[in-house]
Amino acid sequence: MKYLFVHQNMPGQYKHICQRLAADKDNTVVFITKREGIELPNIHKVIYKPNREPAESTHRYIREAERGILHGQEVARKALELKSKGFVPDIIIGHPGWGETLYLKDVFPDTPLLNFFEFYYHAVGADVGFDPDVPTTLDTHCRIRTKNIVQFMGLEAADAGMAPTLWQYGQYPEEYRHKISVIHDGIDTAVCKANPDASLEIKNTDGAVTTLRQGEEVITFVVRNLEPYRGFPQFMRAAEQILKRRPQAKIIIVGGDEVSYGRALPNGETYRNKLLQEVDLDLSRVFFLGRVPYSTYLQVIQVSAVHVYLTFPFVLSWSMLESMSSECLVLASATPPVTEVIKDGVNGLLFDFYDHEAIANRVDEVLGHKDRMAAIRKKARATVLQNYDLEKCLKEQLKLIENLVAGKRPVAGSKPGKPSYRAAARPSGSTAASAKTKVAAKSKAKPKAKPKSRNSRATPRKSKTSTGKPARG
């Protein structure tokens, strides 16, 4: 089998599935990406680079759409190069969010396209408008509607899709949901597990080493970047109260100083520095680790007594599920899609996103009733084993791929996010075959002289499209 994966930040959500497929010597796995400096065993990486950035003159509503088109053009060019060398995939698996899969069905019209549908934007009811300090306007609504251009084209082009949670699936237009299966990327529960002997050594700025161990009052907070979308301001305000109430408590904060989502602060200021000026913390008991290797991250969640997770109504982080799998006591914001996974008092504890005092109170509750929390920790892991375990998710993903390669296509099933698959109605002669017939017919016909347009030059420059490749944007 021949597989083509596409994701700008290889491997992205395909970390497990692409390597599982590449482990089979009978498979050929190709990965088109922007990311350099990463190699995976038995996977042929193809790097693409956009020809340019969106033009400054482009309307601000559609700059991201223009960027997506530029990505799509370059990926299509790379796909054509692969095709010219004899590589025609049995299936294409990609993330449509950055435009990379936009034109792959034009290059490989008979190959099924399986897109990863992560998030469809709304001006009401999700992340936009959730922050009371950032009011929305008509301009916001218009911009957000337009922001979905590339996503919508991805829905139209895809033969099928995957979404990691039912809530994320539900954000997509109803008329396209029949295409989408709710299948999580998968959590490696064999790696993300409790370790009663876990410890973590942290080198302080003065050179001294602090060792934290499982069983101590360690509160953890892990995000890609320290920013409002993931509740960093609320956590910092809660941290001030936690440290004052609990003299033995220590806090580990993992995350970079960039902004992944939402608004950046002016003049290059970081949210970390801004919050450090606003709250009174005993910094001898707070450890900012920045971004860390995965092995260090695992140590962090394994020594954790309480893991705090906040998010706007947005994409669910792997870290929440990995922490649950590691039997952390996860204290999380009562926002979707968190509430799809965590039931308060059953497999975790919930609080109102904007109530930092509630965070501090619930940390007290956890650390003051460790025996009562043991059952919640066990149930947290059981939840992940039942619904998000890597092997189960891979099995579902592989079955979906098998259906698509066999010529089956999704139709609405009895449950949301669980489509049925039926053999696709195939017109007489495939799209590719029809295209070949037309090309052959044209080649036999006597070519006609083309009329000159008003803008034609005396000696017209040969267009790149004459090579069969998309003209560069």
UniProtKB/TrEMBL annotation:
<dbReference type="GO" id="GO:0016757">
    <property type="term" value="F:glycosyltransferase activity"/>
</dbReference>
<feature type="domain" description="Glycosyl transferase family 4">
    <location>
        <begin position="26"/>
        <end position="190"/>
    </location>
</feature>
<dbReference type="InterPro" id="IPR022623">
    <property type="entry name" value="Glyco_trans_4"/>
</dbReference>
<dbReference type="InterPro" id="IPR001296">
    <property type="entry name" value="Glyco_trans_1"/>
</dbReference>
<feature type="domain" description="Glycosyl transferase family 1">
    <location>
        <begin position="214"/>
        <end position="382"/>
    </location>
</feature>
<dbReference type="Pfam" id="PF00534">
    <property type="entry name" value="Glycos_transf_1"/>
</dbReference>
<feature type="region of interest" description="Disordered">
    <location>
        <begin position="409"/>
        <end position="473"/>
    </location>
</feature>
<dbReference type="Pfam" id="PF12000">
    <property type="entry name" value="Glyco_trans_4_3"/>
</dbReference>
<protein>
    <submittedName>
        <fullName>Glycosyltransferase</fullName>
    </submittedName>
</protein>
<keyword id="KW-0808">Transferase</keyword>
<feature type="compositionally biased region" description="Basic residues">
    <location>
        <begin position="439"/>
        <end position="464"/>
    </location>
</feature>
<dbReference type="GO" id="GO:0009103">
    <property type="term" value="P:lipopolysaccharide biosynthetic process"/>
</dbReference>
